[in-house]
TrEMBL record:
The lineage of its organism: Bacteria, Pseudomonadati, Bacteroidota, Flavobacteriia, Flavobacteriales. Keywords: Flavoprotein, FMN, Oxidoreductase. Residues 162-209 form the Nitroreductase domain. One of its GO terms (molecular function) is oxidoreductase activity. Gene3D superfamilies: NADH Oxidase (3.40.109.10). This is Nitroreductase.
């Protein structure tokens, strides 16, 4: 009887339990997508409009960035930007992407092949009346070979292979806020879908807040009380409009999280990524305990701090390259 239970009945119950948990998680994520994503495209909502504008003007940026661009391309995105800027004008509130999009649209409309177009004159008059000014250079820029390879490392393997997940940190102090801001600023160069930049980072070095937050995360119990600083990485669901983008926030959030970890490493700050593949119950509970916006999906947490004089880490070896890399060739 014990063998029947162990070999047949228990695996069936375990499989049913795991699949039920997966289904509940999928339904929870779907409910959050319905409630908080931008699928309704309410362009009077400043956040939704700005994410929507990022998609449109990034299309113009790409059109402007080609050495030999199709002179007839870009007009559909130009009209999208124009219509959304009119919505912004109606609200009287202009966000970052509103302002950036007006600069990119202006560059597009003043191209020699576009300047005399009747549409261009109408749109340019509107943009000039808005009077939006940006100190940044939007659209496209020219870079030399030396400029585009400026970040090349002399010993890249040394940088990548010297990063370990550290769970015990120096007692010399927390990472100061200025350095935290520097890390996030560097990580913001991470690519995102249509350049929407929909990440949001919650940071704390408050012990009570960290203890509360980490109590909902599995796997930190032996060292969580030793973490000096904590990131909670999230992504704004308002940035996503199409049903086929239902996984995109996990992709963009994962990319951004790795950038944060490498930005920390570049400054000699150690870190440990903390998984947030949690149950709906835990996700709801943490939102009641700390102030996480409803439309922000938690991707993961990252504990970080300065390494000690002597440190001990897991020797987590890597699989053979041939198990990871497949070179595709035409037969």
């Amino acid at each position: 009887m014990n063998n029947i239970w162990r070999n047949f009945i228990r695996p069936i119950f375990r499989g049913l339990y795991r699949n039920t948990q997966g289904l509940l998680g999928f339904l929870y994520d779907y409910r959050r997508f319905v409630l908080y994503s931008g699928w309704k495209e309410n362009l009077y909502d400043s956040q939704i409009r700005n994410y929507n504008l990022a998609m449109a003007y990034h299309g113009l940026e790409k059109s402007l960035s080609y050495k030999k661009r199709n002179k007839k391309s870009g007009w559909s995105n130009a009209r999208r930007v124009y219509e959304r800027l009119k919505k912004a004008h109606e609200t009287g509130h202009f966000g970052y992407h509103d302002i950036a999009s007006s600069q990119v649209l202006s560059k597009f409309l003043t191209l020699p092949e576009n300047i005399e177009n009747k549409q261009s004159k109408e749109m340019l008059d509107f943009i000039n009346d808005l009077g939006l000014v940006s100190d940044e250079d939007h659209g496209s820029i020219n870079l030399s070979f030396e400029e585009i390879t400026l970040g090349k490392l002399n010993k890249p393997e040394m940088f990548f292979l010297s990063r370990y997940s550290l769970r015990e940190y120096s007692s010399n102090g927390k990472v100061d806020l200025r350095t935290v801001e520097r890390v996030v600023r560097m990580a913001m160069k991470t690519p995102s879908v249509c350049n929407r930049q929909e990440w949001h980072v919650y940071h704390t070095d408050d012990r009570s807040i960290m203890d509360t937050t980490l109590s909902y995360q599995n796997g930190n119990k032996p060292f969580g009380n030793k973490i000096p600083n904590l990131f909670i990485v999230s992504v704004d669901l308002k940035a996503f409009f199409s049903g086929f983008e239902h996984y995109q926030h996990w992709i963009d959030g994962g990319l951004f999280s790795m950038s944060l970890i490498y930005a920390l490493h570049s400054l000699g700050i150690a870190s440990c990524p903390l998984n947030w593949s949690q149950t709906p119950k835990a996700d709801k509970a943490i939102r009641k305990a700390i102030e996480i916006q409803d439309n922000h999906t938690i991707i993961m947490m990252i504990g970080f701090g300065y390494p000690d004089g002597k440190n001990k880490v897991c020797s987590s070896t890597r699989r053979p390259l041939e198990e990871v890399l497949t070179n595709l060739q035409n037969r």
